Amino acid sequence: MSDFKDLRNSIILSSFGAATVGVLLWFTPAKPLANWVVAASVGGLVAAEFVTGSAEISWKNRAGVFQDEINKLTKNVEAERNLVDRQKTEIVGKDALLVDQTVAYNNLSQETQQLKLILVNFKEELVNHQTQIKSLQTANGEAATEIMQDSFQEFQTQLNALIASLAKRYPNLPKDWEALRHEFDSYMRLFAARVNTVISQTNAKDLIEMSLAMQHEIISTGATLKVKAYKAIVTYLTREFDEVIFKEEHDILLEELNAAWLAKNQAIALTYNKNFEAIKQEFGQVADGVVTGYREDFKSIVDEGLTQVEQIEELQKNILWLQGRLEESSKPHRFPAAVEQSRVGNAIIDYYYRTHIVLDGIDWDDSETGYKLMFHVGRNGSRFISADMLNANDAPQKLKEVSGAINTPEFKHNTRGGHMVLEVQTSHPKKKDTTKDDIYKLGLIPASQFCDRLLVATDHTKKGKPTLRVMAATGDGKGIAVKNLIAHYLTLSGWEIWLSDPVDDSDEDYWYCAKVATNSREAGKAYSKFVELHKSRQNKLPAFTDNYVLGVFDEFDKQHNDKDKEDAKALMTAIRHTKQRQILIGQCSEVGANHWTWNDMSNCAMLCLEGSIGQLIKHYNDLGWSLTKKREIQKQYEKFAEWGRLNNESNDIPNENAYRIGLLAVGDRYEFLEIPSAHKGILRSGAGLIRESLAIDLATANPDVSILCPHCGHDEHIKKGKLASGKQQYACKACNKKFSV
Known about the structure:
Elements lengths: L1 H24 L5 H42 L4 H28 L4 H12 L1 H48 L4 H26 L4 H37 L6 H57 L4 H23 L9 H14 L6 E7 L3 E7 L10 H4 L4 H9 L7 E4 L4 E7 L10 H6 L8 H8 L9 E5 L6 H12 L5 E6 L19 H19 L9 E6 L2 H4 L2 H10 L8 E7 L11 H4 L3 E5 L1 H8 L8 H25 L8 E7 L2 E7 L13 E2 L26 E6 L5 E5 L5 E3 L1
Parallel strand pairs: 5-8, 5-9, 6-7, 6-12, 7-8
Antiparallel strand pairs: 1-2, 2-4, 3-4, 9-10, 10-11, 13-14, 14-15
Helix pairs in contact: 1-2, 1-4, 1-5, 3-4, 5-6, 5-7, 6-7, 16-18, 20-21
């Protein structure tokens, strides 16, 4: 009955294939067609099950008949062959019947061909029918399982392709795509588990029902994931279009500007018309006055008895004299002296005189960035010369060319003196030195508050994170910043400091204190001890110490393996319940380069120093900052960094005491901090304690005061490893020199 199995498998595969097409059509504009396709596939499946079931029952009955005949004819092989011939004849008849059914049901042509093959091989099926019937249920289960797995694979392929396509088009959303992939992987695992559950079923009907249910859930899940993907894109585009002027707003602004310019041009035209009428009136008055004056002079000459010739000569002289005075009086008063201010002022006077506007030069005043020219405009008849008239059209640009100014000079009316002032800028103003008070008012937190701000940032009761991630390049002050913080912790009672320095004795070592680890191997053990302490306290077991513990782990990115980093991720927020805090120091704020993710960083308070601040700001999207917020932070950073740079250069400050800027980010909160200068001297236990070893209890960790430093004679020292000979090595707390006894 293997052919029955193949036939049913083929029918089920075809029906589920059609159903899968219907499911996929749900995500396309041909959604109405999906119902018909799914209905057709289910109808085909039921019809096929009925046909093959009827055939199977028929062949079961006929198998019994043939079995009886076989038992009777065992001794007559020839008779058995005749029986087979008759059976073949019957098969041929049934084949013809199936052909007729194929004509009636054009959509079942492939199934009919399969049935023909089954009928041709019917003899073999009769011999093995019991075994095949017994395995039929299993075959149906395997077929249903295979169909589910195929549709499950198709679902996986489509969603992966969608996420990959969106990630390529919108590469600025890696955090959203990572979260979506994580959720998708969770669904994949869930579906895989359910497929395994389905495989364990043996009833064909149950398998079909469970398959249909899973198909429905796949559709729902796919829609949900697509909605989340598109929602992430909409949110991103909304942020990107923040503060952008759209076309409608641009058109409104343009119309307003055009209206304003039209009104201004109309006002200028009206002013020119008024001035033209005033000029004509003034010219008439002047002409009348000249004529009257000539008549009076003529009468005076006649009265004096001058001859007609003398009168004519005298009149000619007077005319020439009056013409000269008139021409001379109409010229503008020019600036004296051969200096730049005078040259520029006279060039401006000539420029306006050609437009029939008289500017009389009064004086100039030098300023810090150039000079101011002062002009009188009263000798323009009855015309009122306003600053707007002098600045009309492209006049300011012409004045800029004439004067060689770096600004675009414009006339301003001095209401007190009644004259016009033109400011010419020949140099940029000298920047005013920014004082500490000025920079603090702009938002920089003073160094005196540095430690208090970090304590708040790592206090979970104040919405902080118990893990502080310190990131900066070599020489940018990581050790200086953290050492100041450790010194502050040592003033607090009940705290115990574990300092791990895998690159002990480096040129940038500012610690000068006891350490629980001085190489990579010891650093790994120290962190394992820190994890062990957390687990002991979490399980309420006897712990290594009862104090609050601050673990400071330097060079964590490069000197600790991936296991330590995985442990660190697990402890980042969990240690708030076990009286612990940790500081993880690294050299780079490029998170992915050191096997971290931005999701990991969301569980930390982050302190970036100097150049690493710029790198952090570039990842504003990963931090959940809007574009507006990113620009605000960038602007502040540039201002604070410039202030620090100028102070360092002008005062020639050594590197250890240089002005440094840090950016502290906790979730969506941020603030800029001034980093204190290098903490001078040795860190000593006070109200808090510095642990010198993780192998012994603090009670026995105090230095042996009977051993004196051979260099300075001081009796306070710490253990500093052992020499190759096995001798204990010490470091003096007074002079920091090493010795052994």
